[in-house]
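[audit] Reproducing an earlier prediction to check determinism. Same input, same settings, fresh worker. If the tokens differ from the archived copy the diff job will pick it up downstream; this log only records the rerun itself.
[audit] input (466 residues):
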Amino acid sequence: MTKTGSGYDVGEDRSRLRELERTLERKNSAFEALFRLFEKLGSTFDADVIIRLFLMTLAGQIGLERIAFYVIGERGGFELYHSIGMAASKAPRRFGAESAFTGWIRRSASPAPIGDFFTGAGAGEDPGLQQAVERGGLRYACILGGPAGPVGCILLGGKISGDGFTVFDVELLRMITQVAAITLRNAFLYQEAVRAKADAEAFAKVKREFISHTSHELRTPLTVIKSSLWSLDAEEPGNTVLIDMARDAVTRMQDKVEQILSLNEMDLSGRSFDLQPVDVSAIVEDICREMIPEFEEREITVRVEDRAGNREAPIDASKMKIALRALVDNAIASVERGGFIEISMRVCDEPPGAGDGIEIATQSPPPAASGDPSPGGSAHAVVLRPHPRGPWLVLRIRDDGRGIPPGEIGEICEPFRRASNSAVSQVRGLGLGLSVSQRIIAGHGGRLFCRSEVGSGAEFSVWLPL
């Protein structure tokens, strides 16, 4: 020991300096281990990997004899998930939700000496529990949680050195458990989302199979009924009105079955279209001719303007007819008696712009036909995106009906969706028409837009690449 003339102990100063250096070295090592842990935790959503990394890092940095991790069970208690270290026996498998020990862990500050529980609030607890905890080499309890609630707890043994926890040990424990709690909660949420997605996909598969089976079962008897009705003599007294009503009903029902089948087919992966050069104006004429009875029944004035000059477009004629008919049918359902519908066609070299309204797109559009660009989309209205220059064949179907609320245009193509201002009792159909139309149009590499004001009607525009 060396002292100066003033009595200052140089040897003691050097000892303190060495102790400070050891403390700083240990903290530096601990922080490096934490950085490595955080880096690994940030790269996985596997709860098992997260728990094992967390336990090994904690045990290694604090020097624990034993550590056990418990997850929250289905009934609210704690159930053993994994443990590491040496002890006389295995850690207890579970602590029930009604157990006073479980409640004490949830309320205690971490790390809490387990002995305090058995000498205090848990003095009358099952003696077997105390023995199981002690034989498992567990001395402290620490809850893992945050503002959103606990995700589990850990029970700790003593330090291998036999020393008690230092202030730095407690700080390190709290830092690691907080990060582990956040990471585990994210992992659990991710796993729930994966399970929900799998359930949704399984349900969608069952739905498609059900629709396909049911639609085909309906199509066969409808064909028979239709053939029988068309073979009856409408000139026989008393039969004319009834036969016409039956024929109209069968035709409408057959259209709905075709819509259901088309919607189901659009959901099938790998679906492609038989694209052939077709005069779209001829399809529009066929649709208008077939719907004359409906126009006359509602006293609707229809105007068709063809500025495309009988331009042909590469389309699947049968599918495109379903899509366009559904748009016209939607216009009929939207207008009042004596209303007005305009159908126009033209060729446009420029892509759609803001004046064409909001693009209607589904979350998962069907694949485009071979050689065509695959359309993008979302479940909501999307921002107009850059698109190669035309030419495009543009069909516009405008009506003077009730219109669509602006906030609902983006979702109007979802199956069975109707605008909130539509009177359900007055609107025909299943709410599938626009959904089928959008999928067919997207499958051709086309785009569907809508602009509307409530009370001023709506205009749907179909953009088909030429």
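[audit] rerun output stored. Observation attached for the diff report: The chain has two domains: 10-192, 271-465.
[audit] end
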